[in-house]
Amino acid sequence: MKAVGVIVEYNPFHNGHHYHITESKNETGADIAIAVMSGQFLQRGEPALVDKWHRAKMALSSGIDIVIELPYVFSTGNATHFAEGATQLLDAIQCESFAFGSEQGTIQPFLNTHSLLKKQNEEYNALIKQFVSTGLSYPQSLYMAYEKLKKLEENDYIDLAQPNNILGYHYIEAADRLNLTIKPVTIQRIQAGYHDLINTDLSIASATGIRKSLFETLNLDEIKKFVPTTTFTQLNAWCKTHNQFINWDTLWPLLRYAILRNTPEQLTQYADVTEGIEHALIKAARKSTSFSQFMTNLKSKRYTWTRLQRMITHIYTGITKETLHQFSKPSYIRLLGMTSAGQKYLSENKKSFKLPLISRVASTKDPMLQLDLRATEMYAQGLSLISQHEPNGDYQTPPIRL
């Protein structure tokens, strides 16, 4: 059986994701699709709308055949680290190719861009330092350096101001640097842009727009046309059980406590917390009554919103620099769920996988997995603020079979 891999968060799964899976299978001729999916906390430094099991069920009901979890170490990392973990896992589970959505829609400009930045690496890094010294943020400096370099060459390059293009570039760069044989394919993103709000004239909306609607109205009928029926069913079941969806505003009382229980010196021990911001974190937490107010009080030109959110994710989960930085590559494949076709693929190919397949967490004491278990526990603590129902736990939840 031939497998194509996709790197996802499905927060939540929507019609655009269904289109992406269908086109990925068509483009590659794959028999099955394997999703490596972030767990309870995501790449932009935020908790998932609903837990990983509900999101896995959405995916398995709509074209994905196997869902494996991207470990916390990578799912909360910057684009480079995120891409490294995800591509290695898809390679380890023997995907012949991986397909990502992009604003560009064709693969050659991605390959051209990667070739340019690889060839001009020294000049690129020098330009980045130059732009950083002018006061620009690091992501802005990366973009400005790239724009200057590509003007010197006559070729078709991607627009690195577009969020899906950025991630796609990092996937290709990671696969090349790690000498992976997995082949990149890209699918054109259609109708809705990454940050677009809901447009009722379309059938596809961005996950950002869907989440905004859900948090503002808690009315699932407003997003019904933009998601498969199975997604709507899962979201509705979650809402009936837990009353609302999860974001940092939901978890604010626990997050505020997690910040204020530390001294400034202790805060600097957490992953991604850079020296100098610890006092600002405490000051903002003391005078803020909501997460939104906290971020407004904390935001500065030096730190992007995403970078700040990654810091507070690690503070909330209690993950220190020393703990996080001991891991450089995945050490296992964590199975969250499968269809009958996915189960057949696993049975036929698991002996050739490059990493051990874990279906029951009690069977291993892998240190990287322990961080995933902690993340699930802290997600559950936040859920307990809004719900009397006992949340699903890693030890109690076997892989989903559809």
UniProtKB/TrEMBL annotation:
> What is the enzyme's class at the highest EC level?
ligase
Gene Ontology terms: biological process = tRNA modification
List membrane-spanning regions: none
The UniProt keywords, alphabetically, are: ATP-binding, Cytoplasm, Ligase, Nucleotide-binding, RNA-binding, Transferase, tRNA processing, tRNA-binding
Name the catalysed reactions.
cytidine(34) in elongator tRNA(Met) + acetate + ATP = N(4)-acetylcytidine(34) in elongator tRNA(Met) + AMP + diphosphate
* Cellular component annotations (GO), alphabetically ordered: cytoplasm
Could you say which residues bind ATP here? 7-20, 101, 164, 189-190
Q: Name one Pfam family in it.
A: HIGH_NTase1
The main location is cytoplasm
Annotated GO MF terms: ATP binding; ligase activity, forming carbon-nitrogen bonds; transferase activity; tRNA binding
Record's function text: Catalyzes the formation of N(4)-acetylcytidine (ac(4)C) at the wobble position of elongator tRNA(Met), using acetate and ATP as substrates. First activates an acetate ion to form acetyladenylate (Ac-AMP) and then transfers the acetyl group to tRNA to form ac(4)C34.
Task: Spell out the PANTHER family in the cross-references.
Answer: TRNA(MET) CYTIDINE ACETATE LIGASE
Put simply, this protein is called: tRNA(Met) cytidine acetate ligase
